[in-house]
Amino acid sequence: MMSETLTLGKALNHGLRRALENDPKVVIMGEDVGKLGGVFRITDGLQKDFGENRVIDTPLAEAGIIGTAVGLAIRGYRPVCEIQFDGFVFPAYNQIVSQVAKMYYRSLGNVRLPIVIRIPYGGGIGAVEHHSESPEAYFSHTPGLKVVTCSNPADAYAMIQQSIDSDDPIVFFEPKRRYWEKGAVDLSLAAQDAYPLHASRVAREGNDVTLIAYGPMVRVALDAAEAAAEDGRQIEVIDLRTLSPLDLDPVYTSVRRTGRAVVVHEAPGNLGLGAEIAARITEECFYSLEAPVLRVTGYDVPYPAARVEEEYLPDLDRVLDAVDRSFGW
């Protein structure tokens, strides 16, 4: 085992590097991904080592990036597209939903598009407008796309490689506020031997209430569980990891034991992932529930200015308040 302590961002860098080494058909493309190494330096050093034909600085044109990736994928390449910030993905939305998601179906299974679309998402970094969005529900709702999100360095390293290896198009959401958080990463672990890509995981065991989160909110959920333990309340935290397809069997198993569930995400609550998860839990675990499934989410407003974003983001107090309300039923 070759374990190192890495930031989440550096783990992604190592994962991309390994994918480039393992398959000459892998290409990385995006705005400033080459010489600059990306605005978050996730692709730092890759163009220097693999050349301008494999790590490609593109024009500032998201629709062009994804459209070009479709053509490359049809010709046998495995493009990894970086969308510089979450709010910049919308010019490419038509390409992703109309082309990337539908090509396999449209071609009767004869044409696959092994494209990975990397999107740094979420708030908490004091950014300006269009730089702190959480657009995951748009893509999770789209048949033909798979959607995943990592929450820690070990998963980041393995999941980016597994996504690139997949023959399906994958939208890969990266929690930008967690880029600098550190954890142990086994760099000797082959992608095929890592935890399955489309599987959720129990991040912390507990018996009193099930707390379900993904991406940037997993850390908040774990902190809430740590705080609740001081009061003798054992919270089980589940990291979804995959948003489409959802893997809810571990959630159902947990809720049948705890009888309570709280879902946490940054995106607005209206028609968010939390609503779908709550509905499915209610359908599958109705007779086990001691309280309604509750949600802690961002508010149904455009993402606010940086100076007040902490008022918008779900935090420890809001999560613990929901847990308390669950026990109040």
Q: How many strands in all?
A: 14
Distance, first to last CA: 47 Å
> What percent of the residues sit in helical stretches (DSSP H or I)?
25-40%
Mean pLDDT score: 97
Overall, the morphology is globular
- Secondary-structure element string: EHEHEHEHHEHEHEEEEHEEHEHEHH
Major sheet strand order = 3-2-4-5-7-6-12
As a whole number of angstroms, the C-alpha radius of gyration is 20 Å
Q: Summarize the biggest pleated sheet.
A: 7 strands, mixed
SSE-based structural type: alpha/beta
Poorly predicted residue ranges:
none
Strand content: 15-25%
Count, helices: 12
Explain the overall architecture.
The protein contains 12 helices and 14 strands. The chain is α/β, with parallel strands linked by helices. The strands form 3 sheets. Strands 3-2-4-5-7-6-12 form a 7-stranded mixed beta sheet, sandwiched between helices. It is globular. The N and C termini lie far apart (47 Å). 49% of the residues are buried.
Key structural traits:
single chain; 329 residues; alpha/beta; 5-stranded mixed sheet; 12 helices; 14 strands; 21% strand
List the helices and strands and how they pair.
Layout (H helix, E strand, L loop, with lengths): L2 E5 H15 L3 E5 L15 H5 L4 E3 L4 H13 L3 E5 L10 H8 L2 H4 L9 E6 L14 H5 L5 E4 L3 H13 L4 E6 L6 E5 L14 E4 L4 E5 L3 H13 L5 E5 L2 E3 L4 H10 L2 E8 L4 H13 L8 E5 L10 H4 L3 H12 L2
Parallel strand pairs: 2-3, 2-4, 4-5, 5-7, 6-7, 10-11, 10-13, 13-14
Antiparallel strand pairs: 1-8, 6-12, 9-11
